[in-house]
Amino acid sequence: MLQLFSLYCVVTCLAGASLTAELPPEESQPSRSGIVLVDDFQYFPPGPLALETAPPALEPAEAPAPIPAGSDAYQYSAEPQAQTLPALTSTEHLREAVRHLREAGFGEDADRIQRQADELKEMRLQEVAEKKKQIAELQANVEKLELELGMAAQYMVVFSFCELDLNKFRSMKTTWESLVKGDPKKIPAKNEENFIPSGIVDEQKFSAAIQTLESIGALKILSNKRVCAYANQPSAYLSGEEVEVIQQTAGGPPTVARRLVGETLIATVIPRGENRSLLKLTSEFSGYGTRMITSADGRKFPEIYSRPLQTAVELKDEETLVLVSPQAKEDLVVHFIAVKVSPIRPMSSRPAAAETP
Asked: Can you give the residue range of the structural domain that contains 319?
């Protein structure tokens, strides 16, 4: 029996060893007891725990390049900006508080806040009245100083665009120089010297000459206007219509453009004191000529002529100045401007004297 039992044990061990050898090798995995199993069933003591290496931190993304404000992408990629409401004033805060209190049913508190709002409004009205009074006093002092210095804050510029027929004028056997007071060379001219001189004229003689020239058809008053100008600020007058004209280009065919045909005047009055002022004036008179110009596409446009003028003259108040546009020897028509500058004085604020019975 013992021999049979020994033989059974040997066969069992051999069969188990053969089955174990046929199994595929397994990866080492830690068991619950901490024992590590390997292919050859050898035992290794556990070593120190190894911490896993942390993944590298994500680098911050680079900021996108700014988009130019003028590009199309800027218009579509820009985030909408939050619209901010204007801050409430103290009076509006009180008004809102009264409304909320009344909606919540606190009528007495709302009445108390309403009285505070009314008091604050009255204080603001009194403050406005005091500020206006201070402004009026300062304005009166400024006007007084301007009156002492011979200056004004506003001026009235009266001007007339005129057209003179030289043939009819020469038939009168008179001279233009008889109307001019002073040396015309004192008036700066940027172009060629005028055949009819510019200068300050005697107003009465000039008005009489204008009436005489009009009566024989030698003079046409194209426009007679008034412009209110603030001191040291340009004031403009434009009259006419915008039309299509031919514009010559360097090295290319003529192109069609638009421009104003009529009268243009820009005046700037600079007070000098002692009832004198410097008048800076830029004007232009343009009209239709007799010729026709053909464009590249075959369209025809009338010729436009222009008479520009630019000067700066120091004048006394109420003096009349005649400024003649540049002329050519073959010109038969002369354009000039008669201009006068007058200060605008404020109306007196003194009360009228009481009538005595």
From this structure: 154-343
